[in-house]
Design brief:
heterodimer; A: alpha+beta; Uridine Diphospho-n-acetylenolpyruvylglucosamine Reductase, domain 2; Enolase-like, domain 1; 3 domains; 5-stranded antiparallel beta sheet; 12 strands; globular; B: alpha+beta; Aldehyde Oxidoreductase, domain 3; Aldehyde Oxidoreductase, domain 4; 7-stranded mixed beta sheet; 5-stranded mixed beta sheet; 20 helices
Chain lengths: 265, 784
Amino acid sequence: MQSTTYHKASSAADAAAKLAGAEDGTLLAGGQTLIPTMKQRLAAPTDLVDISGIEEMRTIDARPPTVTIGAAVTHAEVAASAEIRAVCPSICDLASHIGDPAVRHRGTIGGSVANNDPAADYPAAMLALNATIKTNKREIAADEFFQGMFTTALDEGEIITSISFDVPEKGAYAKFPNPASRYAMCGVFVAQGGGGVRVAVTGAGDDGVYRNADMETALASNFSADALDGVTVSADGMLSDLHGDAAYRANLVKVMAKRAVAAAG
Amino acid sequence: MSEGIGAPVKRKEDKRFLTGSGRYTDDIQMENQAYAAFVRSPHAHAMVKGIDKSAAEAMPGVLAVLDGKQLTGDGIGNIICGWAITSKDGSPMNMGAWSALATDKTRYVGDAVVAVIAETKAQAREAAEAVVVDYDELPVAATIGAAVAGDAPQIHDNAPGNVIYDWEIGEKDPTDAALAGAAHVTEMDLTNNRLSPNAMEPRAAITKYDAAEDHYTLYTTSQNPHVARLVLSAFYQVAPEHKLRVIAPDVGGGFGSKIYIYPEEIVCLWAAMKTKRSIKWTADRTEAFLTDAHGRDHVTNAKMGFDADGNIVGFKVSTKANFGAYMSLFSSAVPTYLYATLLSGTYNIPNIYCEVLALYTNTVPIDAYRGAGRPEASYLVERMMETAARELGRDPADLRRQNFVREFPHQTPVIMNYDSGDFEGNLNQAMEAADWNGFDARKAESAARGKLRGIGMACYIEACGIAPSAAVGSLGAGVGLWESAEVRVNPVGSIEILTGSHSHGQGHETTFAQVVADRFGVPLDSIQIVHGDTDKVQFGMGTYGSRSGPVGMSAIAKALDKVEIKVKKIGAHLLEEPEENIVIEDGQVKATGTNKALGWHEIGLAAYTAHNLPADMEPGLKEGAFYDPLNFTFPMGCFICEVEIDPDTGKTEILKFVASDDFGVIINPMIVEGQVHGGIAQGVGQALLEEVVYNEDGQQLSASYMDYTMPRADDVPNYDVLHHNTKCTTNPLGIKGCGEAGAIGSPPAVINAITNAIGNNDLSMPATPSKVWALIHSARMAAE
């Protein structure tokens, strides 16, 4: 790791100011992606602005109809939140399977969403739940927020402060983990709510999280696993790597979608 | 005897390991310590046109920027392979030059080119990034296939066609004739996947140079510090042997990868002399993937012939073995004398012929990794037997049973002479524990849930206790493979055992002490095991190939024999009884038929006060012994694995794993069980999860835990570890060894279970979900 200057921010506004004052600064949330990248010397920010301790970004409000999770809430806190579990247990289950215990106790929902790793779990949930990403400047709908792998609608210096979504009528996440990294080789989040059925896929596509329109149409009229039998998932646009080729990932999309629907009930 | 041979006593060393009090190489801080960082080739094959060190040399804290021309200019020799193999045509093997720092050419990604020495680790790394190496990239051969292709690049000038040797064993014509006359021939093309060793503690070195004494010290992560000292002095001319002390303190796992002498230790010793500073280097995990010797990587065609009754009549094997870019210390022995000599398996096979083509590629050097050649042999033999049984419509257990070796000693056609065993006894024990006969009902139950269930077995045999020195010498080994021990009984009766074996996870501090406690009936706590320091232990050949039990402990037993003789003489003298009436038991020296006895400590005191010893007896109580084994030992066993596969995802779950081993006499069953667990975890890793993958440019795609799948707790099953032991007849304690058995027997058992479940023999390791799914899916597509 190259030398860097650490700053602890007390508020989103303070973080923005500190970031603006840095030569080549970066926000540090849980650091579960950034720190390993820095240790490998693939990133060398001059300044780290730590937002993980900002109180206003560490709250959970799960009073229906809306769940709001502060950006600095860790995966372990989401997994263990009785409040959230009472209204949307699928998001707790998702969080409980991210990484390992060390990752879950440091990694944050805001950091995961901002990074938009193509194999991360949260982006699928955000997209399927039609979440709103709130920043220090504006509110962004998930459909606009996720713009391809490692790419989001965030502007330079923009800070996610919280994430909110309406409690779905039904929702579940099914994940097939990469055997090595335990990231999603394919993760499908299926949600049925006021806006209809939304199916979001992470890990499998070659440009990050996306929605599967064919599945959404099939499920809109018949929310059951069997309804997906007739849906064909093309291998075009699927990732192919040493863990599985595009055909295998296309298969996983359908298998995981059916399992998610079955779990959603 | 509660603490002696056979007692499951808890490990003495675990107090320090479990409380964070171990002392590993990286824990050691020297006065005047600086750090090394290595500039490594980013290309798999490239000419080094020039090196610009000026920017690095000007950076803060930099003490020296050292390159290969300086190294060779100072007379530091090339890294060697210590086992000479002769090709079929009588020509010697083609060993290419390996300089610890590349001089004119780099041959794999990670090949060290420049060493930067600086005041801090960060400064060394910063400066290493500032070294500019001008490379001229060359075409790359990253796989066996690429190395033998007609247009393959020439990796070493003295190895035409990238061939190191083309070796054979056994009788070709009789084997061909046996296959030609066979009623059935099973033929398979099998790949043994390339693995990364992944010891928990990465390699490290810390060196010190005393200019006034012209003396060097090296602390390093070694399985054999004496061999390291010998090679560093005799071949690399880093320092004379008597001016070099090598210490391997606590070492966190080796699995073979810490047998060898690597460039970094050589460079750190040399740099300590150059800079007059102590030099520390500790690999990070990426460096471990890029530079630790890998294991396996064989491609094999095999034919096994059977007569009309199902008796094996011949076995013909043709293997291509990847050696990587350079010949590592024991590399040449692995696919020859540690592999082809085990191709008879547990069976009577009258005719065996094996040829091995050893090849250079632009990849990390390959050498012994847990099992070293024996897993490759076991995988081959046991997959062939399983496939043959399916082709012949025979029950796989019955076909094995029919062909088992039943009389001992048994001479195979490929050198080995098995001394003992009851192969059917292990098979029966494993089948009963696995409820083999109840499998059909369990398979039906899985099918009702839409799952595919399979069961598979493997009856492995391996050769441990490496090895009779004269025998290995005649086969090309550059060293003898005996072991030494020294027993020091102190004046107060406490005992120190100095051993040339090295413990890096095996629990020697406990098991070796148990052998002593068993002999004299003294408390385990009164016995200390000293190892890993060339200044303390006179010499030793180290720990690998499960040799610490059969060879290391035999040396201790031999030294204990000498101590026992002297103790009895002293006892007889002091008790005024005939020597033949003296017995040592329960920590006392007694005269049978009398009530006369001396405490153990009284003997020690008498020996060292020397006030009243037998005439002409020297004072003191210290004896040493060298033990050269009479034969290899042959642990064997039967493993049975039962799996369930999700046909929708191809994911395999191991539902049951039974291991019935024959390890001979067991010193500590708890430690042995732990060795079996670890070995099976590594074998399951090879079968289901692990593979080093290179792209065609020679870049390692699996060089981190994001892509290299190490087994996790939830990947491995609960094991049923059973024993049906027969005593080894060729060493004093009757030990066969247990360190590698789990890794040797489990891959074929797992794969045989999966191929049984999916009804397709054409499966390679690792049996990843995507690979298994593709086989199931293609069969379904064909059926539709």
